[in-house]
Structure formats: C-alpha cells, structure tokens
Amino acid sequence: MNTSTNTFVLDFEKNIFEIESRIESLKYLAQSEDVDINQEITRLQQKLEKQVRLSYANLTPWQKTQVARHPQRPHCLDYVHALIEDFTPLCGDRVFADDEAMIGGIGRFKNMSVVVLGQEKGHDIESRVKYNFGMAKPEGYRKAQRLMRLADKFNMPVIAFVDTSGAFPGVEAEARGQAEAIASTIQECLQIKVPMVSVVIGEGGSGGAIAIATANRVLMLEHAIYSVISPEGCASILWRSADKVKEATEALHLTAQDLRKFGVIDEIIAEPLGGAHRNPQAVIERVGDSIFKHLKELLPLSGEELKKRRTEKFLKMGRHFADSK
Fold first, then answer.
1. Integer Cα distance of 144 and 201 in angstroms
2. pLDDT for residue 118
3. By the 8 A CB rule, do 52 and 58 touch?
4. Separation of alpha carbons 250 and 258, rounded Å
5. What whole-number distance in Å separates Cα of residue 141 and Cα of residue 148?
6. Are 223 and 275 in contact (CB under 8 A)?
7. Burial level of 200, CB count in 10 A (0-12/13-18/19+)?
8. In sequence order, what are the residues at sequence separation of 6 or more whose Cβ sits closer than 8 angstroms to the Cβ of residue 5?
9. DSSP assignment string, 234-277
10. What are the tens digits of pLDDT across the range 247-266?
11. Where are the domains of the chain?
12. In the prediction, which pLDDT does 5 show?
C-alpha cells in the first residue's frame, strides 16, 4: 500500500492521515539522524493498513461519493496516457468549436486500433478551469458523435472513460442545444456496429455520463458513483435543503454495488485498499485488464449482433424498471 501523505484528506480518513504523517516524519528522522527506527515504522505501517481496512470496510453512499470525487484519483487522461499507445487527439465537432472537457482521439490499446472518449476533470485549479471541471458542452457531445462515426467507418472499438458530475448547465450550452446533443450522442452509441466498452472511473452524472456510457459493456470502479442526478441536486429538489445530501445519496442507490444488483452495470472493478487515489497505477492496470477482457468477448460478434445486443440491453432495463413499479 502506498503510504505517502495525501494533501487532500476526507473526513473519515483523518485517523489514516495522522498515521501516514507519523510514518513520513519517522522516515525523515531516519535519514537525518543516525537512529534505527525501522521497527517503529513497521509497526505503524501495520497499524495504517488495519486502519485503512477498517475505514473502507463499510463505506456509506455519501463516503463513496467523497472517494469518487477525490482530486487525487486518476482521471481520464491518466488512463489514456497509461493504456493507449500513440494516442492522437482529434479536436472539434466540425460545427461550432472544440470542447476540452470531452477527450477524444485514436490510438492503440493492446495492439488494437481504438477510438477513445472521456471526460477530463483536471487535477488543479488551472487544469480544472481548462477542462471546465469535466462538464462538456454541446460541442463536446457532437465531437463524441463524430468520433463514434469514425470508429464505425474504420471498424475500431470504442473505449469511453466516464467521469463527470453532469453536462454543463450554462445558458450558452442550452442555447446551443445541450439536450439534443446528449440525446443524439446516446442514439449514436446505439447505432454504431463496433464494440463499445465504457468505464465509470469517478462520477457518472446524469445524461452527461450516459451519453458515452450507452455501451455493450458498462464497467464501474468499486468506489465510483453513477446516478440520474448529483446528490446535491437531488437534495435541493426533494428536500429543498443541502443539509439532506446524505439522505439523497441513500435514496439514489448510486454505488457500484447497488447498480450491479440492478443490472445497470456489467462488472465492478476492485480498487486498491484505500481507494484509487492511494495507488493510481494499480487501478489503471486493473481497468486496462478488464477492458481487454470484455473487448475479447465482443470482437468476434458481427456488427449487427453488437448493435442488437446493445439496444436490447438498455431496452431491457427500461422494461424491468417499468414492470417493478
């Protein structure tokens, strides 16, 4: 387990942070002083692992939401740079502009030519502003449509990394047809005749997420969330109070475990002990292995069969929830 001190600490991780800080202090002391404190460091590392296991054993939905939003969690471009060789960004929707919140391009994954889509949130203030906090505008979704059509034309699988609190809600986005752009992107997902695998790596928020998650296989990290609305938005609508955000997360059933039970997602990818932000490299490798496994199962299928199964998958969800009312 990575014992480096995190600069961002979640409320329920304070005990973990204190132990990590003590370990780092002792390591610094061992370098600057001629003392043997390896035994004490080992004891603290064992205590740290026990505390992390205890803290993450039974996370509440709100705690999982906090983990999913952790700023040190690997984001879309981290996965792209680690898993996609020779990645070449393809910009613009050929109608209005480029949207940097929506990453799109071509590259090679495990020696396969693929089209890659995803929302990028950014890691610091400068990059978050650049990527608009991962909230795409209509041109971002139209760029995604263009790249899916490219994938279909050249028979390349589509890999999508989902991580957004939702589509951009600004007036200018609405003026340029945000709802239509999202709906058309979902329609494009259902029309293409190549394998499509989507992974919810952090937040899967509303139509902004499902626009690139209407895939043959939808995978989800263990501590990611996926819902029709953000917990804050749900609390403001149902209770008219931000104080009810914890109740909202319970009501939304937005955890990977809930969604797997409902059949909304196809697989939960386990995260390293303490969440993806504690060992980004390990979780990126696990995501890559899972994507490859599902692509191998999908590649032998014909284009018509892929399209048929993808459509039926989502129609089945609608029928199931309609019948359960």
1. 18
2. 97
3. no
4. 10
5. 11
6. yes
7. buried
8. 17, 20, 21, 24
9. HHHHHTS-GGGHHHHHHHHT-BHHHHHHHTS-SEEEPPPTT-GG
10. 999 999 999 999 999 999 99
11. 11-57, 66-323
12. 41
Which parts of the chain have pLDDT scores under 50?
1-6
Residue-wise pLDDT for 129-177, tens only, equals 999 999 999 999 999 999 999 999 999 999 999 999 999 999 999 999 9
> What is the rounded CA–CA span in Å between residue 321 and residue 220?
21
Token pair of 265, please?
Answer: 């997602």
> Is 66-323 a domain of CATH 3.90.226.10?
yes
CA separation (Å) from 38 to 5, 49, 52, 108, 232?
18, 16, 21, 44, 46
Angle at 88 between CA 86 and CA 90, to 5 degrees: 165
Predicted local distance difference test score (pLDDT) of residue 321: 57
Q: Which two tokens mark 2? A: 């990575």
- Residue 325 has a pLDDT of 55
Q: What is the CA radius of gyration of the chain?
A: 21
Give the pair of three-digit tokens for residue 64: 């999982």
φ and ψ of 13, to 5 deg: -100, 10
